[in-house]
């Protein structure tokens, strides 16, 4: 608890102080009071020579003011998510009706597909998996009349979970593609 | 002397083949005690004692007695409770009146002075880096294996909520943490150079994946490349002039080589499935993850040539890797745990294909070799929390440090 309090205090100082110095944080020099500069690990006399400098991590703390607020746009209530099996990006049989229903609603509209994943697998592979899922939905929508040029895609990996519980049902809810209308 | 000979023997073998397993008995190590020689005992002194004790444990050359005791700085004799210690590491913190400390350090071996050094810490919040510097110097003095990584900053992305994340610079123990970017959705933060003055990251804040480069001193950022679908900086060459990116301009994730100076990019893979996580293996070869055999596994290819070789023939769902010369660390899925699947890290020697398991349980991810190949940094997930894991290959020891808030998405050092 004490450690947590300390860390919080350090963080608060760092975030709000905006330390301004650009000087090295640590400047180490050898003490010349002991003779010798060898590397005798058994000996009794040698000092350490050389010096070391560690620069501050940063003096600039950046807030991304241009960031989107993440709330997304209102999605037509009739459009549904498309769900996928573990480590798969092919559209399941039971999801085809949803895809066709979405295609009818999205005809002549510009929209974005967001691919999402559960928390398993490495994150870069997961991002690619999310993208392949979005791409599979795009292909199916185009096959059902949507305009390919009106569709953009993004993978959010595991960064936008719909559910955070540690259950099979929850992980299945996260393996999805969402449609976002402007 | 016997211990030094063992160390020499280990380091010789290590150079020949790093997959050799070496286990040392901590009881055989000489006892080291750490003592506070400051004129006034206070919280800073005792807190620093804990930091230095933790670091000296990671050094792995001593059996560290972590009991706190004060003793006159120049006294060659140990404090009463440390009478059985062979080595005494003593420090004296003196506040400089402007937010920093002058720190005197001495190492005694059987009451004889072996090492002495003065450190000037100008930002007291970076106290843990002072401990790292001292541990590094003591290790070097004693002839231990490389600990260059200990003084480096760790950079990680912390998921703080749906569509929310921060980029954080920290020390390897996470005692020091500084948020360097916040307010949006980010991923895959990676140092842009050895000096750690700049870093790359992916921004998803406007839902158009874009890789940016940020200078830490000025906070200036520049867009490097965008791609519909995904854009990730997977690796940076040793000289910082070349990047391996994963881009998907047509919805197809492939690996690209990007020249930082000319801004030219060259597509290195062309497969209808998934190719990601390119890692430099020397100057002209890369390792990467592909599902071209049905599930993710590790492959390699020479830059400029089309032939692709499978590198790993063991494990399943081998979905991430890190390369260093003839060594490769990869992650494999191994059975299930109560909280989900178990993912362990494995080290493979590309000379003889021998494999050494580096972790035994849990969800281990995102391995990253240190620049000298002596250690592997990784993320260990436990429930909704994450830990920083350090595996010291040369001494066959691992250490972990918890992140108390959020979940780590990526890590680099």
Keywords:
heterodimer; A: 182 residues; alpha+beta; 60s Ribosomal Protein L30, Chain: A; 2 domains; 4-stranded mixed β-sheet; two-stranded antiparallel ribbon; 4 helices; globular; disordered N terminus; B: 413 residues; mainly beta; Rossmann fold; Neuraminidase; 5-stranded mixed β-sheet; 29 strands; 46% strand
Write a concise synopsis of the structure shown.
The complex is a heterodimer of chains A (182) and B (413). Chain A is built from four helices and seven strands; from the N terminus they run αββββαβαβαβ. Chain A is of the alpha+beta class and 182 residues long.
How does this structure look, described?
Chain A is α+β, with helices and mostly antiparallel strands. Chain A has helices at 2-17, 96-106, 123-143, 168-174; strands at 26-30, 51-54, 62-63, 82-83, 111-115, 151-155, 176-180. Chain A has 4 helices and 7 strands, in the order H-E-E-E-E-H-E-H-E-H-E. In chain A, helix 3 links the parallel strand 5 (111-115) and strand 6 (151-155). The longest helix of chain A has 21 residues, at 123-143. Chain A starts with a helix and ends with a strand. The relative contact order of chain A is 0.15. By secondary structure, chain B is mainly beta. Chain B has 2 domains: 26-145, 3-Layer(aba) Sandwich (Rossmann fold); 154-412, Neuraminidase. Helices cover 11% and strands 46% of the residues of chain B. Chain B has helices spanning 2-16, 43-59, 127-141; strands at residues 31-36, 63-65, 87-95, 101-109, 112-121, 154-161, 164-170, 177-184, 186-191, 198-203, 210-215, 221-226, 231-236, 242-247, 254-259, 265-267, 275-280, 285-290, 297-302, 308-310, 321-324, 327-337, 340-349, 355-357, 363-369, 375-382, 385-392, 397-403, 407-412. In chain B, strands 2-1-3-4-5 form a 5-stranded mixed sheet, with helices on one face. A 4-stranded antiparallel sheet of chain B has the order 8-7-6-29, with no helix packed on it. In chain B, helix 2 crosses helix 3 (127-141). The longest helix of chain B is centred in the N-terminal third of the chain and has 17 residues, at 43-59. Chains A and B meet through helix 1, strand 1, strand 3, helix 3 and strand 6 of A and strand 5, helix 3, strand 7, strand 8 and strand 17 of B. Strand 1 (26-30) of chain A pairs antiparallel with strand 5 (112-121) of chain B, so a sheet runs across the interface.
């Amino acid at each position: 608890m004490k450690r947590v309090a300390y860390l919080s205090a350090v963080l608060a100082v760092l975030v709000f102080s905006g330390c301004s110095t650009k000087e090295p944080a640590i400047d180490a020099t050898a003490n010349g009071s002991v003779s010798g500069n060898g590397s005798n690990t058994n000996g009794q006399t040698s000092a350490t020579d050389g010096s070391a400098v560690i620069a501050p991590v940063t003096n600039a703390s950046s807030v991304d003011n241009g960031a989107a607020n993440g709330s997304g746009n209102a999605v037509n209530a009739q459009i549904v998510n498309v769900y996928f099996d573990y480590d798969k990006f092919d559209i399941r049989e039971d999801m085809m009706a949803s895809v066709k229903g979405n295609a009818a609603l999205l005809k002549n509209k510009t929209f974005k597909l967001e691919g999402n994943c559960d928390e398993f697998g490495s994150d870069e592979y997961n991002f690619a998996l999310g993208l392949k899922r979005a791409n599979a939905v795009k292909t199916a929508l185009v096959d059902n009349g949507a305009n390919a040029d009106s569709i953009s895609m993004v993978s959010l990996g595991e960064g936008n979970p719909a559910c955070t519980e540690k259950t099979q049902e929850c992980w299945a809810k996260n393996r999805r593609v969402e449609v976002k209308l402007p | 002397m016997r211990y030094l000979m063992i160390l020499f023997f280990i380091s010789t073998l290590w150079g020949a083949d790093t997959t050799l397993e070496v286990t040392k008995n901590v009881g055989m190590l000489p006892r080291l005690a750490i003592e506070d020689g400051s004129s006034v005992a206070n919280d800073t002194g005792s807190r620093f004692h804990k930091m230095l004790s933790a670091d000296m444990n990671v050094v792995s050359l001593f059996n560290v007695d972590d009991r706190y005791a004060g003793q006159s700085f120049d006294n060659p004799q140990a404090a009463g409770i440390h009478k059985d210690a062979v080595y005494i590491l003593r420090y004296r913190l003196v506040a400089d009146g402007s937010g920093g400390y002058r720190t005197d350090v001495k190492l005694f071996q059987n009451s004889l002075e072996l090492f002495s050094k003065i450190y000037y810490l100008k930002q007291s919040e970076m106290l843990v880096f002072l401990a790292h510097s001292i541990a590094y110097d003591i290790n070097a003095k004693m002839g231990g294996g490389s600990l260059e990584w200990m003084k480096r900053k760790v950079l990680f992305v912390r998921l703080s909520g749906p569509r929310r994340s921060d980029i954080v610079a920290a020390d390897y123990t996470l005692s020091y943490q500084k948020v360097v970017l916040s307010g949006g959705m980010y991923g895959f933060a990676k140092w842009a150079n050895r000096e750690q003055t700049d870093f790359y990251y992916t921004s998803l804040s406007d839902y158009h994946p874009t890789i940016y480069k940020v200078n830490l001193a000025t906070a200036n950022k520049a867009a490097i490349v965008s791609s519909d679908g995904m854009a990730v900086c997977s690796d940076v060459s040793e000289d910082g002039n070349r990047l391996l990116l994963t881009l998907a301009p047509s919805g197809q994730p492939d690996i690209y080589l990007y020249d930082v100076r000319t801004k030219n990019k060259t597509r290195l893979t062309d497969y209808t499935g998934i190719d990601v996580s390119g890692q430099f293996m020397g100057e002209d070869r890369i390792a990467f993850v592909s599902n071209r055999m049905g599930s993710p596994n590790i492959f390699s290819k020479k830059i400029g040539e089309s032939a692709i070789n499978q590198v790993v023939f063991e494990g399943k769902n081998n979905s991430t890797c890190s390369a260093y010369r003839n060594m490769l660390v990869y992650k494999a899925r191994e059975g299930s745990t109560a909280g989900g699947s178990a993912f362990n890290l494995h080290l493979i020697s590309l000379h003889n294909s021998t494999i050494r398991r580096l972790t035994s349980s849990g969800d281990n991810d995102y391995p990253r070799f240190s620049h000298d190949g002596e250690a592997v940094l990784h993320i260990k997930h436990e429930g909704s929390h994450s830990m920083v894991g350090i595996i010291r290959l040369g001494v066959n020891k691992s250490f972990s440090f918890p992140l108390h808030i959020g979940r780590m998405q990526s890590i680099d050092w």
